[in-house]
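Re: [ENG-882] Designed sequences occasionally contain unexpected residues at chain ends

Forwarding the minimal case from QA. Structure tokens:
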């Protein structure tokens, strides 16, 4: 059971992900979370740094889709200017949105990456589908009620991960 919430990779931020290495592993597409993964949850629009990152991975041939549990208003406002497809009110970790994303991307499970900042939504959902999961440290601490509850559970899992050598850099958890 614990294995389902353990990511394949854990990095400080999306900017620390070695995209070339993912490509070498045969990965072709990325399902990515929005809040606290791409930008802080309170940030309504993409930053120039993020826009450059997205353009870069797309120019490498990666297909990207944003899959968020947040509302239509939040997700569409953020994604429209980026010209990136998106799924809102995704209800992660349930499989439905992941299945829909795979269909839209047109890639197989073994060549699809999930990136997000939460173990109990992004990582659990991705692992259940047999996708390659990457956890990032959340960009900010401002979060809703359910996210705060999830964070408490995460702390227990983090302790286990730390004991088992999942952290390869010095961090604050
Ligand atoms: Mg998030």
């Amino acid at each position: 059971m614990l294995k389902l919430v353990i990511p394949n990779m854990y990095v400080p931020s999306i900017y620390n992900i070695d995209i070339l290495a993912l490509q070498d592993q045969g990965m072709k597409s990325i399902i990515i979370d929005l809040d606290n993964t791409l930008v802080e949850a309170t940030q309504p629009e993409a930053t120039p740094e993020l826009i450059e990152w997205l353009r870069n991975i797309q120019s490498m041939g990666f297909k990207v889709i944003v899959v968020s549990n947040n509302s239509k208003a939040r997700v569409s406002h953020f994604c429209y200017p980026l010209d990136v497809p998106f799924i809102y009110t995704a209800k992660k970790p349930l499989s439905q949105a992941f299945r829909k994303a795979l269909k839209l991307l047109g890639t197989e499970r073994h060549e699809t990456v999930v990136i997000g900042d939460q173990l109990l939504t992004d990582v659990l959902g991705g692992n259940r589908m047999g996708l390659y999961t990457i956890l990032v440290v959340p960009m900010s601490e401002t979060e809703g009620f359910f996210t705060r509850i999830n964070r408490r559970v995460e702390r227990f899992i983090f302790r286990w991960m730390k004991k088992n050598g999942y952290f390869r850099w010095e961090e604050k958890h």
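QA comment: On inspection the terminal residues look reasonable. The longest helix spans residues 145-163. Proposing we downgrade this to a documentation issue.
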